[in-house]
Amino acid sequence: MLNLISGLTRRQKSSVFLALDLLLLPATLLFTYAIQALPQPAMATLWHTGPVLPYLMLAAAGLSIWLGLPLIQLNAYERHAVGLTGIYALAVAGSLAVLTGLAKLGLPPGTHVIFGISYFLALVAARAAMLYITIAIYQSAGPRCRVLIYGAGATGAQLALALKSHETIDPVAFVDDNSSLQGMMLVGLPVLAPGKIAEIVKTRAINRVLLAMPSVSPPKQAQIARRVQMMGLEVQTLPSFAQLIGEEALVDKLAPVAPQSFLGRASRAGELGRAAQLYAGRSILVSGAGGSIGSELCRQVLTCRPKRVVLYELSELALYTVHQELLSLTEGMDIEIVPILGSITDPRQVRGVLADFGVQVILHAAAYKHVPLVEANPLPGLANNVFGTQTLAQAAQQAGVERFILVSSDKAVRPANVMGASKRLAELVVQDLATRTGRQTGAATVFAMVRFGNVLGSSGSVVPLFQDQISRGGPVTVTDPEVSRFFMTTREAVQLVLKAGAEAKGGEVFILDMGEPVSILHLARQVIESAGYTVRDAANPDGDIDIEITGLRPGEKLQEELTLTDDLIGTRYPKIFCAREEYLSEIEVAAMLRALRQALAAGDAQAARGVILRWVEGYVPPEADRKSS
Q1: Which of these is catalytic: 220, 369, 411, 499?
Q2: 3-state helix, strand, coil in the chain (%, to 5)
Q3: 505 catalytic, yes or no?
């Protein structure tokens, strides 16, 4: 039966509707005569009306086609179609009155009125019956998706009405947080409490939950959706009516926010000025070119009009992405962009790249930087951050590279984690090379370091993490109410690196005046509010997003520092300073590297931590930190 119905063309279906309407005409006449007090029986009166019946049916067919009734689909037969049916029935009753009057059949005027009303009701009932039968056939022919509607407001009710005639979806019940609605029946479906969802799903075989709450904030919808998805159900959200008709834009409320809005101070970024001359016309290598800092270094270096930019990157995807971007930026410019896929821990490849492309300046941004990941994988972190830096720096010295600038971190100062310790060890390696280079005569590589705090908006940093948590409905996680960090924009960080590269004489540690540290708890509130939501707490229990305190992670400090000493020297740039810090002797650095290499070769993470404890000032292992607390 389903194949027969689904196989009908639109023209064939229209013919069926027209034929049904015409067949109902004599049947309705017979019914009208039967309920009337007429001189003759109903069948005799119908026989007596026979001469005008063909003309009546011809007029009815013309009226039906003119009004378009046969073209109206069953599932679209609603108020407008019912109105057209009423007009059609009235016109057919009028035609009957005219034809019987011309034929002098002598029917009472009331007969025509009763016929019109009866024919209208018969037409509507026939359409409803056909729709019911068709739905029943479709429902019995294939699997059904049983849905639970979350939200018993106007949107939910309209959704349930629409789904009742759907071919493959069965609305089963509503759930709603409004206790005054719970226990009621709405459009034939019960309204239940959200706390009973698990029971409803089990007893009523629910397959999907539809969120019909367009007025509820996206974070709260995301919270509900996540809770329901944990039960193994598919969840879909219904847009608001304003969105459907285009009055409200379908946009993500998490629109990008300018990073400097979270700084709590004026941005230190300006123009490169005379520093740009150092990079003009030179061959520059950027290690870690696909990262947040590395890619921005490449972009800003391009403004200096270098001869060549060598992109050294371990990640194929990151290298491809930055290479394509820089190619588009340098279109029409005489700047060569060279993508190199490889690791800075490979001395043979590093030496080959420096020689093949005549590298004159190295901006070393390649590093494993995510504290929890390096804490969980200390040996790869140390191998990359320490020995990768040593390999690249030694190759630079041997190749006669003019300048080598190491991008470091405030986590290198009295570190509490392996990542910060690895950056401090890398600093010691570079300081050692700078000291030995300073004793040489003739042209020598200038080694320097730049140290800065957290970069807003960089991959894995706190602001993108908060925005991702907000998009999932929260909570936003903060490790400790007292934790604070120094922040800077990517533009500030990169300008610090480039200006330091031009200012360096050898062995310096450059830092930026980053103002006061920013409270992470306050930052979390800012990010939530900048996304257009409110914080849910004791003062505002109806807010959108919770802030959850999770506790400090292993290796995490409450506050970071920028220098090991307060002895700072000013530079030509008002907000950039040079720190005077002690460093290890050549013999000490050699002993440290030898011990660390042995630990890596043996795969002994504990021995590697022992090397850090021995040589890195202020390092406190997470285990010792927990014991002291």
Answers
A1: 411
A2: 50, 15, 35
A3: no
